[in-house]
């Protein structure tokens, strides 16, 4: 049976940012909040960061990798390394020092030891926390579970992600208002994992979507059929949630997750572009979902969205209300991303390029500074195609807002370097 990778005694490295010093605490308690309280007692109001480190030989436990851990708190540790971490609001890139203690320990070991130990007993505790814990403990447990082998974590993430969709399907089946809940396309081995009567909150479903997106975007050392099966299954689950989940936050998260996947895995792009286009094109859809779909279409450089984006911008007033202003800003940025798609010299393509520039240029008159900054960045991307875009960016050098003018200067400098 594999040993626990967290020993009974844990060294906590305390890094005081004000003095750039490190000290070490040793205790048999692994509660992060307890350590925070203890350090506050010892160090007063000094700014500090806590991070778990494995104590060599503590409690007779060693990491399953078999490597000896350094005895000093800072030796052979690179806590400045960054990892991708799923949150309910997107994919964040964080330093190890900024993560919760257990999450940081697992993430650091995964990065330095070439894979974490097969600590099945610990994962069962995480599974229990995800299934029955409160929302805060569930989100933290999902972040830690993310670094475990995919064969363990993917089914759990799918269970959380698809819970609302499965529940709605089962309810419709029982009420006779929808298709049968028997889904022949769903692998049999998942049938016992998804419980239709258990619906996880939208924050957990959103984080599960982004966690799956990170896993899908990571390189694969093998192309075995089993690996490809779960990857296909995860993309299909994200599309299902985008199209069927009743909560707009979960749908928006799935749209964002699909964009992350498409930007990392070219093979999935044909699968996800059409659902994202359908979501953005649906005017009755919640604006936050359309916003997320637009950002993802720009991220994957889906040229199919070009005309939709032009029409969307032309349908808005230059000075829109708050929610619409955010949507406009996102579409402007996404349209800027599409400047790097492939275009021919045909008359049709050249006309589309000019229409894109005109649609963006309208918003140089916006009273919203953030919109004007987005316009400046977007037009900077289109400089490679249009002299009119370059002229518009040059005019923004005189914008009364300093940040807009700086963005214009940066855009022109970037274009000049690319044009060399």
Explain briefly what this protein structure is:
The protein has 420 residues and is mainly alpha-helical.
What secondary-structure arrangement, pairings included, does this model have?
Layout: E1 10-16, E2 21-27, H1 32-43, E3 48-54, E4 82-87, E5 90-95, H2 101-113, H3 120-132, H4 135-145, H5 150-175, H6 202-217, H7 225-244, H8 248-264, H9 269-281, H10 287-299, H11 306-314, H12 322-337, H13 347-361, H14 369-382, H15 387-395, H16 402-419
Antiparallel strand pairs: 1-2, 1-3, 4-5
Write out key terms for the chains shown.
420 residues; disordered N terminus; ARM-like; three-stranded antiparallel β-sheet; 5 strands; Serine Threonine Protein Phosphatase 5, Tetratricopeptide repeat; two-stranded antiparallel sheet
User: Any idea of the CATH class of the domain at 301-420?
Assistant: Mainly Alpha
In total, how many beta strands? 5
The name CATH uses for the topology of the domain at 301-420 is Serine Threonine Protein Phosphatase 5, Tetratricopeptide repeat
The biggest sheet, with number of strands, parallel, antiparallel or mixed sense and barrel status, is: 3 strands, antiparallel
Strand content: 5-15%
What is the rounded Rg? 25 Å
| Form type | globular
Strands ordered across the widest β-sheet? 2-1-3
Low-confidence parts, pLDDT < 50 over ≥5 residues? 1-77, 180-196
Helix content: 55-70%
CATH architecture of the domain at 301-420: Alpha Horseshoe
**Helices and strands, in N-to-C order?**
EEHEEEHHHHHHHHHHHHHHH
Total number of helices: 16
Distance between the termini: 61 Å
Structural class given helices, strands, pairing? mainly alpha
Mean pLDDT reading = 77
């Amino acid at each position: 049976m594999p040993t626990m990778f967290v020993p009974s005694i844990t060294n906590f490295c305390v890094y005081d940012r004000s003095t750039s010093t490190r000290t070490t605490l040793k205790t048999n308690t692994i509660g992060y909040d307890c350590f925070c309280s203890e350090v506050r007692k010892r160090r007063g109001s000094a700014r500090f960061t806590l991070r778990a480190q494995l104590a060599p030989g503590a409690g007779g436990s060693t990491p399953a990798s078999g490597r000896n851990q350094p005895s000093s708190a800072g030796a052979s540790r690179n806590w400045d390394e960054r990892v991708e971490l799923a949150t309910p609001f997107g994919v964040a890139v964080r330093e190890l020092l900024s993560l919760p203690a257990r999450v940081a320990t697992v993430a650091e070991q995964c990065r330095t030891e070439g894979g974490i130990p097969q600590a099945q007993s610990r994962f069962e505790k995480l599974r229990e926390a995800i299934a029955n814990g409160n929302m805060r403990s569930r989100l933290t447990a999902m972040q830690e579970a993310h670094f475990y082998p995919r064969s363990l974590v993917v089914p759990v993430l799918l269970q959380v992600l698809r819970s609302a969709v499965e529940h709605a399907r089962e309810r419709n089946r029982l009420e006779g208002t929808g298709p049968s809940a028997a889904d022949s396309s769903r692998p049999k081995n998942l049938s016992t994992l998804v419980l239709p009567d258990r619906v996880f909150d939208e924050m957990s479903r959103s984080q599960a979507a982004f966690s799956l997106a990170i896993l899908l975007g990571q390189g694969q050392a093998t192309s075995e059929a089993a690996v490809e099966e779960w990857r296909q299954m995860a993309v299909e689950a994200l599309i299902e949630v985008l199209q069927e989940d009743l909560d707009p936050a979960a749908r928006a998260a799935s749209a964002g997750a699909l964009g992350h996947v498409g930007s990392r895995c070219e093979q999935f792009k044909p699968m996800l572009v059409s659902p994202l286009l359908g979501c953005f094109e649906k005017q009755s859809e919640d604006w936050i979902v359309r916003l997320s779909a637009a950002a993802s279409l720009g991220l994957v450089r889906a040229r199919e969205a070009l005309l939709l984006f032009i029409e969307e911008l032309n349908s808005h007033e230059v000075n829109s209300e708050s929610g619409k202003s955010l949507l406009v800003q996102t579409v402007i940025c996404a349209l800027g991303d599409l400047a790097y798609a492939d275009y021919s010299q045909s008359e049709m393509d050249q006309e589309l390029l000019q229409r894109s520039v005109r649609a963006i240029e309208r918003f140089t008159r916006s009273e919203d500074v953030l919109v004007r900054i987005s316009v400046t960045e977007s037009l900077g991307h289109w400089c490679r195609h249009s002299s009119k875009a370059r002229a518009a960016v040059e005019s923004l050098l005189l914008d009364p807002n300093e940040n807009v003018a700086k963005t214009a200067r940066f855009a022109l400098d970037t274009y000049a370097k690319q044009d060399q």
